Amino acid sequence: MQSLDTAEVGESTRIHDQSTLDMTSDTQPPVIGVIECINFMPRFWKKLPYLWFTHVEHMFNHYRFTDDSSKYDAVLSRLDFETMKQLHDVLENPPATHKYANLKIEMISRFGDSLECQPYKLLSKIQLGDKKPSRLLRLMTVLAGSCISEDVVRTRWLALLPQLVQRYLEFVPQLSLQEVAELADELLEELRNSAVTSKDVVSCRVCSTSPPPSDIAVANIVSELSEMKLCIAEMTTLIKGIDKSLNNHLAYQPKQHRERSRARSRRRSSSMQSSTSCYYHQRFGAKARQCEQPCSYNQPVPKKLTIMATTQGDDDSIYGIKQSNGDYRLRIYDRGTKLNFLVVSGSDNSLMPKSAINTKDRLEPCDSDIFAANGSVIRTYGKKLFTLELGVRRCFKWEFVIADVSEAILGADFLEYYGLSVDLKRGRLIDPSTLLAT
Hints:
Layout: H1 2-27, H2 31-40, H3 49-62, H4 68-77, H5 81-86, H6 88-92, H7 99-111, H8 117-124, H9 133-144, H10 150-159, H11 163-169, H12 177-193, H13 214-250, H14 255-274, H15 279-284, E1 305-307, E2 321-323, E3 331-334, E4 339-343, E5 351-353, E6 370-371, E7 377-378, E8 380-389, E9 395-403, E10 408-410, H16 412-418, E11 421-423, E12 428-431, E13 436-437
Parallel strand pairs: 4-10, 5-9
Antiparallel strand pairs: 1-2, 3-4, 6-7, 8-9, 11-12, 12-13
Helix pairs in contact: 4-7, 9-10
């Protein structure tokens, strides 16, 4: 008997608990449903708060959110810091009842666009871009809401389409706006697949009642190509004229003319000395072993030759001979390093003096040696990148070999890489890219 009473009490308790659970499930959502709903809720859309609340309330209905506090807490969980700062007065003093409804009204009124602002956004900021016309129409319809008529939306939407598509759609006024949007999708897709990328000159299929624009488009393209060919021909002629003029300026005097000029100069100098020189110097010149006073003959000083260093190659050729009288040397001043660079077109490498390097670190000699003409070794200390400003409206970046030399040298590697021409007659370098000279 006692066991029977215990069984009846247990069964009664189970039925009561089940009925309580059923009542709870009818009024409140399960805990898992609450978490899932909050996780799937998007962040607050400041630009479209009304649309955001429409989406959120649909989720509330799906997950059976009926409690006002639960809705209020769910909305707060999807607000960012900036939004909560703007709502601090509402959040600090919420009403005792209808907290969610009050929060919804405040958020829509503060962040939602007014009826006057929505047409401005529709008429001035929306563009077609890479969207389909039908998608653009849907976006404009959402932004327009109920305050803008369908005719206004249709007029603005047509104005955003390519001009050729607009002309085609003018022949179908009897179709609805949605049907016109589908037709615009097909026309624009065909235009984008065509080879012509111009907005106004396109080729597409039209109905037989309208004139085909393909002939006009082809004629316009042919006309534009003809104009481009004429421009290219004029530019080619102009460049050839500039090259010819530049070559004429760079032409040197004939070799025989230079030799005759030097010979006349030597004869003039010797005749001036012979008038006051003794017999032996007048006859034998610098080879005279005797001299009779008075004699004003000046023994000529032999020209000093300085051999510029070059890397040792397969041959024993000597590059970069410069004369101490300065008649044939070309130096170019660099505004960046404030150095005078000696232009040596026969030197294999461009060199930078060790003394010109401003560095606290001690420079260590490298294994790669540079040899002078007499076979002596010139020490090198690696390479360093410099930017030169030679006055031709562009900079020259080059990696110089740091060596024990007295002057900075622009070698053949630098001249060949930038295509610079050496004009010894006028003492300058000519840049073919800018047609300017140093």
